Amino acid sequence: MGLDPTLWSAPDPRLRSLDRADDLVRQITEYVRDVFWLKEPGSGRMLYVSPAYQNVWGRTVDSLYAAPASFLDSIHPDDRDEVIANLGSQLTGGYDVEYRVVRPDGTIRWVRDRAFPIADEDGIVGRVAGIAQDVTERRKAVEELQTRERWYRTVFEETSDLITVFDAAGQRRFVNPSVEKVLGYEPSDLVGTSVLVNVHPDDRSRVERLLTKVKEDPEATARAEYRLLRKDGTYGVFEGVAVAMREGGVVETIVVCARDVTSSRFIDPLTGLPNENLLTQHLELFARRSRGGLAGFSLVVLGLDRFRSITSLVGEPAADQLLVEVARRLRAQAPEASILARIHGDLFAAILQGVTGLDEVLAEVSRLEAGFGQPFASPMGPLPVTAGFGILVAPPAEAGAGEILRDALEALASAKRLGHGRQEVFDESMRRRAMERLDIENGLRRALQTDELLIHYQPIFDMRSGRLAGFEALARWDRPGAGLLPPASFIPVAEASDLICELDLWVFRRAARQIVSWRERFSRHSDLFVSVNLSGRHFQGGSLADRVKTILAETGAPPAAIRLEITEGVLMKHGSATSDAIELLREDGLRFALDDFGTGYSSLAALHRYRFETLKIDGSFVMSLGTPSERPELVRAIIGMAHTMGLGVVAEGVETAEQLAFLRRSHCEFGQGYGLGRPMDEAQVEALLRRDPIV
Ligand code: C2E
Ligand code: CA
Ligand code: CA
Question: Which contacts (CB < 8 Å, 24+ apart) does range 671-677 have?
């Protein structure tokens, strides 16, 4: 530190201020936050210590002058030995230690302490000068970095995304374990290979452009869709998001987070059969053909009996293998000209081309059913499995794909009601049930005009302060003669048509008006928000953003008072239309929450892409805390990950005090659940608003 050593050799042994130092030096020592000290090594006497000592150590300067050895008492017991071992180097140079200081009030500061021996002309060290710097903030940052790294590691291992870290030359340096599920490789198979090694030849230039873009533009995150070769020789479709990590302005690594979107396109990745999308397209095509007078067709759908209990009995991987085997047997039994598909879960379908007579269809169904004649292999030994069949014979020419599939599924539902291994042909009684659903649909349409619909509001609390933060608006239907219906009894019907959009917007309008009124009338709650659920259907048409804006204008609700909840499934299904709509609304100041997180794909790429403000951990994870199926480490990892991505977290389904305590400890900001507050009507909300913040 270029100071003149003579400045420090003050004659007065009880030097309190640096008499002979010039003003500048005194000012530095008196005002900087670092602690300067000067010691006489022979006697151990403290000659000077700057006032900052009081701030860092929480002790008076005088106490140190009076008892220089009290310095050692103030050091954390775990660090004391190291400091003592290093004291000798204060005389020889090189004393540079970090230790914790325990203040009298018990709080802890991290200190970096350095010393410089000051020798006279004869080379005798008569003084030692030192600087002790408060490095608590830096240490905290390092510790935070370490926990963040731990979170990332957990998430790397849990996510279904494929995360690859490339070096600047495009060699793979790190691949997360999901590669095994997604592509069939071990991470070690791919580490060290070039980026293009398993990219489909037609997509290589696209991947190269993706990497070039992030290399050139430090701010950019780039996105591309491309095919990757699986170990089994098939290709999967992936959506990759890339970011470049820089070190001193130079690109060090590129991280690509890729999501398998194969299934959301056309193929079921598990069985390799066409998925629901492709099935619908085929049905559309066949329906058009039969309208044109070409060969007709029939549709058979089948679902395994007791599949849920089988899954819980043998475990998910074995249940998946069972589905693969079902697909294989169906393929072996189905006629050449048929099209097989897996709709989802244990639901399969077969389009029988040119088969239009009831007897013919039933004959084909018996052949398909023969596939279930032999038991299936399972970890528990041979397992007999049966299936129910829903049959739709030669649908009328005017029927569309959606209707055809719905009728066949109706027949299947009715077969399932009869018992195991049953078959049902779609008929009038089923049409009747379809009518019942239509009745709900019509009733609901009316309910939207009258005042049969209402909202219950479930409080969301800030768990740090215990204060009420907002509400989630949950639809209820007070149907004449039927009582108060929960959403489960009408939302699914509404979801099957565009009615859900009307319903959601009704809830939105009503809740927006309500929140404006509450914010005004309860001045302590002027920052209250309301969360509104949005179905995926909104993202199929294009008018969501406009309609939302109209409602905001109509009700005068500030956009920041509204939170829109969407589930992950929505994002997976509707690609770019969804992201455009979300982006538009975000620009207008609306905020988004990702609902039911953890139940679906738990995709980091999606979180990154859509830039949500809030993540809602699904209630099932929270409610299982404290039970044998709990996964606390996963809950913690989700919270940590959300925080590093800048998202707030709401835990749903908080029922017990233990769950609440765990979430608080895990730094989860918000909580919602029966243990904190059930969904309530407007009058109950107002009573709560008067009472809060007493939780
Ligand atoms: P959600 O969005 O996940 O809403 C939370 C559900 O969990 C609510 O059920 C709520 O009452 C329930 N819940 C909250 N805390 C607890 C708890 O501690 N324990 C348990 N066991 N359950 C708890 P609700 O009101 O029956 O709603 C069910 C679902 O219906 C909602 O799930 C949402 O998906 C849908 N829904 C409700 N209102 C609307 C709406 O206006 N539009 C749309 N599209 N969907 C809605
Ligand atoms: Ca919700
Ligand atoms: Ca939820």
Answer: 671/460, 671/461, 671/463, 672/458, 672/459, 672/460, 672/461, 672/472, 672/616, 673/619, 673/622, 673/623, 676/459, 676/461, 677/458, 677/459, 677/461
pLDDT digits (tens, 9 = 90+) for 482-522: 999 999 999 988 987 889 999 999 999 999 999 999 999 99
- Using the atom order of ligand 1, give the atom closest to the CA of residue 507: 41
The protein residue with its alpha carbon nearest to ligand 1, atom 28, reads 487
Residue 417 in tokens: 């009601």
Place of tokens 């279904």: 160
**461 Cα–ligand 2 center, Å:** 15
| 110-116-121 Cα angle (round to 5) | 165
Residue 525, judged by CB atoms within 10 A of its CB (0-12, 13-18, 19+), counts as buried
Task: Give the model's pLDDT for residue 611.
Answer: 78
Residue recorded with tokens 């259907």 = 537
Single-letter code of the amino acid located at 327: A
Select the more confidently predicted residue: 234 or 412: 412
Cis amide prior to 628 (ω within 30 degrees): no
Cα dihedral sign, 377-378-384-385? negative
Dihedral (CA of 405, 406, 409, 414) sign: negative
pLDDT, mean of residues 264-286: 86
Q: Model pTM? A: 0.55
Average pLDDT, integer, range 192-200:
89
In degrees and rounded to multiples of 5, residue 227 shows phi and psi of -100, 140
Residues with CB under 6 A from ligand 1: 458, 474-475, 486-488, 491, 500, 504, 507, 533, 535, 595-596, 619, 623, 652-655, 672-674, 679
pLDDT at 572: 64
Centre of ligand 2 to C-alpha 156, Å, is: 26
Q: Flag the least confident range among 303-312, 552-561, 601-610.
A: 601-610
**Residue 366: predicted pLDDT:** 95
pLDDT of residue 303 exceeding 80, the answer is: yes
E-state strands within 103-170: 108-119, 125-134, 162-167
Q: Residues 626-632: contacts with CB within 8 Å, 24+ apart?
A: 626/656, 626/658, 626/659, 632/662
Res 154: pLDDT: 77
Query: What is the SS3 assignment for 127?
Result: strand
- Atom of ligand 1 lying closest to residue 655 CA: 18
